[in-house]
Amino acid sequence: MTEIPNRITVKEWDRRFAEDAAKLMDAHVPYLKPLTAYVEEGDTRLTRLKFDPSPASLWLWNFLLSENERLSAKLEDGHRLVGTMKDLGTVPVMAYSLPNLTAFYPDGAWWIPCIMEANASALKAAEELGINESVCPVRAMVGAIAAESDFPVPGLMVCAVGATCDDFSALAQFINGLGHAIHWWELPHRRAPAAGEESVTLQGGLSAPASLVSFVVEQLAEIRKALSKYAGSELTDEALRLGITEANRARSLIREIRNAVFSSKKRLLSAVDLLIAEMLIIHFCSDRDECIRLFEAILSEVRQREAVEPDSDAVRIFWVNPPSDIKAMNILEDCGMRLCGTDFMFTHSLSAIPEDLPPLEALAMCVLADPMIGPTRDRAGMITAESRRLGAEGIVVSRIPGASHCAFEGSIIKELAGEELDIPVLELEIPPVCDAYEQSMRGRLEALRETVIARRTSQ
Amino acid sequence: MNPLTAAYSSPWVPAPLVKACGFTPLPIYSPSDEYPAANEPVPTEGRCPWSRAFEDMIEQSEFAAVIMTTTCDQMRRTAELLEQDRGDIITLTVPSTTSISSMRLYQSELRRLASFLTSRSGTPPTSGAILGAAASIRPRASQKAARTPVCLLGSHLPVPFDVFEAILEEHGACIAIDGMEAGPAFAPSLDDFTEGASLEGTINALGEAYFSQIKDSFSRPNSAFYRWLSLELKSAAPKGIIIARNCWCDKWAIEGIRIREWTGLPTLELEFTSGELSVSAISRLEAFMETCRND
Q1: Which of A42, A299, B260, B274 could cross-link to B267 by cystine, CB 3.0-4.6 Å?
Q2: Is B51 helix (H, G, I), strand (E, B) or coil?
Q3: Rounded to two decimals, what is the model's pTM?
Q4: Per-residue pLDDT tens for B130-151?
Q5: How far is A367 from A388, CA to CA, in rounded Å?
Q6: Residue in chain A nearest B80 by alpha carbon
């Protein structure tokens, strides 16, 4: 299999750190350091990854890995931390509309077992509380909060429940049982409007009953009250509008990055870097302005490469669900494939928030476009439509160990993709550290690639 | 038998409303001789055996209506599968949270249910019919036999409740606290339920009775469930707790950890991986009862 030539390891990156850091001088990134520093702090998975070689990518990884330091620093500066849980993208837009609030997703702890491998104390702490490996890797969140080990425990937690994963809801209740107050809000099941029922069109061509939008507006109004009380100042419509405008700047940039990468005939950004960049959008990695600057740098890099990179014949893959082990993205490329589309479960947070509607109504419409709260067929329909638009030659559905939605979605996506696109669909279960399964994963991905190549030849 | 039978498997479906719409309410909480799971459910990765069994039952039977609920991920997804090819299914949104606006959402869902059942050849409900139906419904009674008292919690069983109860009896246990979904904790008292000023008002009142009284461990927060459990534990003084749950039921799996910690009582988690009570489950039960008796 052809090795992708221009991805680099942590060691290689360390060697050229001074050179890359100099290129970022104008960007003023004070927290920039060689990635080895993070490895020494326990993020050992980095040594097994290959990264995009650009200075923008160095900035990206530093921004990601320094988040906990940033949260602690913000706390010291008088900021108040909000733990937003499960809605993946909407409540942070509200929180960042108040100047002294910083929101982040404790849910992000689900990657701790991957990034820190055996050093993940959060996982051990969860196990000591009785929560073992039969539960989705997001159980690391419970350990991290109980042991106060991986991020500062936020003073306010806002958790969406309802049409969300049961394991997450149960773990959040477990955290509540440990004495942490949680503001619960309802994320309702998105049902199809009945005949004659007033309905609204959401992002992605989805629709929902208008009554559900009103219901979510009420839920968000309660969150607004909780945030205002916590911040000590009212979250006005005007502040929300400004917050939405800024969030839309970030969303617009990540959409441009995705569009450039997915629609190009060239390989413009490594898959693991794209995955991380996409993930930033849900809470801006705890610094919205910095996130926007970083996206601008990545977009600039991608545009420059469009002009100079040769065309790539890598097989074009649409990837569904975030992989529990980010190394899977490297393996995909090692097997001669590249991303041409993704649904990492938060496509609703990539779309523009309407700016011509009352702010809570606009946000409610984003909430209801969440691909995970409606029928899997809706999500499969969006994946199929995007795969067609982007010219995907195959779909990989990445299964998360212990996540119940995974038992249903693979077959539905396979059926729809088979009916409408006639492209192969591969389901892969990816554990948080996939080393033991790597050969089998490679074998299955290579088989997928060969199937696609054979089809290309026959067509 | 009334040809209009509405099958469901959640206590959040109010039987009085179903009955008032001209349907025979048929709550199903386990496979039975009458309603067997058509195919022997096999453990499917990520799929709870109960949701698999219920899907089979619905596909093999000819109910006039099937009422699914969103109370857990597994049944919500199963409802999607069933809805794909059938028009006789409604999925009722049951909120997890306990706010007034969530209650209003639940009440509006009950009104939607009434319209759906009416459209499926049912009768438009009246306040009087709902009231009459409410008066005829009585919750399952707990045992008070002279055996070792246990508290039973959980959702759906792989065998009918009376069969399971008999197995417990054989091993010297009696169910002193019935916290199963088909049991009294999930059956609101309708003694004070009165007719509203309009049909909508009556349905809302019924919804309020259910929403405010059901002690569901899956509510967020679930403090009402723990208040209920605390009172029951004080009054019935069980020797141990049995949590009956299906494989892949994340909610009960995680809640079980908390219940064990919180009560300090011997706790047995009986996990069902298929549509039958396994030999290993029975021998674990035997050992557990021995512990309870000696405690």
Answers
A1: B260
A2: helix
A3: 0.95
A4: 999 998 877 777 666 678 999 9
A5: 25
A6: A375
